[in-house]
Amino acid sequence: MKENIFDSFIDKAKNSGKTIVLPEGEDERALECAVKATKLNIAKIVLLGDEKLKAKLEPGVREKITIINPKTSPDCEKFAQKYFELRQHKGVTIDQAKAVVKENMTFAVMMVYFKMADGIVAGVRLKTADVLRPALQIIKCKEGITKASSIMLLSVPKEATIETKDSVVGFADCSVIINPEAEDLASIALASAKTMKTLAGVEPKVALLSYSTQASETKDESILKIKQALNLVKAKDKKLAIDGEIQADAAVSSFVSKIKCKKDVLKGQTNVFVFPDLNSANISYKLVARFSGAVAVGPIIQGLNAPVNDLSRGATSKEMLLTIAITVLQASV
Fold it and tell me: Is 197's pLDDT higher than 50?
């Protein structure tokens, strides 16, 4: 395995000039991470919270970090008006808009909407739903993407018996779409392929995983859904190396692939694994990480018009720093 594969993300993000908002500015991990990101010149950091936070930052750094209190910011007026315009069809009143934009996460999303910031990293205090909801409502998904999704990146240990020559692989979707339809699986595959190429710098080879491999005659709806997803992906990206439905062993072993696959597209070199549902994806990445010692990074949210990444509430400041770097790289594409 390439040593410190994820550290390279931090190196790539340096001197980006991008602005990243941390809505949970009053969390000690956010404060610590803001200092580290500033010292490493990964991004211009905006902390949301009380202005008194400035006193907690060390001299020489505090002047470079912006602190905004959404409850008193003069930007709330224009944020509220735009939020009302965008959400009035859902029954939102102007008074409700004025109240909601003073919430840290919504304020951060409005900053990105108005291009006052390039991305958001949150989740050390907020639940995933509370991070993603305003992002989906305001920032929305990119054209051609039916739903936002996520990918976990896992380092490939030296002892791994899979055949990919890459030092990192992706598992998707591990945290957002519970039971994806064919269109969703296609979106997950396309977004994950792009994430793998832009972040890890490797050519994506995508497997749409299943319990069967290229079953020619089947009435199983779960298999037909994957076949439909494959056709949708091929229609949108004819050059992408992708196969499905395919079993996991055929996806990672050229020997098994030759036996089971009519067309040996992936040749056992898969580096992006798209699972049929969230259950199988989440369970698999956690088991693989525990059994193999692989380092897992994510979930990385993909498919939005601007990057918004969700952290585990147990995330360390180091994990937050890495997520900021990833968000910068997403915003730089």
Answer: yes
Confidence label for 4 from pLDDT (cuts 50, 70 and 90):
low
Strand partners, 301: 150
Every domain of the chain with CATH number 3.40.50.10750 lies at 149-292
Domain 7-140+304-331 has CATH 2.60.120.10: no
Site of tokens 């259950």: 279
Dihedral sign from CA coordinates of 214, 216, 218, 224:
positive
Q: What's the token pair of residue 41?
A: 């010149």
Q: What is the distance between the alpha carbons of residues 75 and 68, in angstroms, rounded to a whole number?
A: 10
Q: Which of 165, 188, 163 is nearest to 175 (CA)?
A: 188
Query: Contact, 33 vs 122, CB < 8 A?
Result: no
Helix orientation angle between 317-331 and 28-39, rounded to the nearest 10 degrees? 50
Contact of 186 with 233, CB cutoff 8 Å: yes
Fold exhibited by the domain 149-292: Rossmann fold (3.40.50)
Q: Is the pLDDT of residue 2 over 70?
A: no
In angstroms, the CA 128 to CA 107 distance is 17
Q: Where are the beta strands (DSSP E) in 7-159?
A: 19-22, 44-48, 66-68, 119-122, 149-155
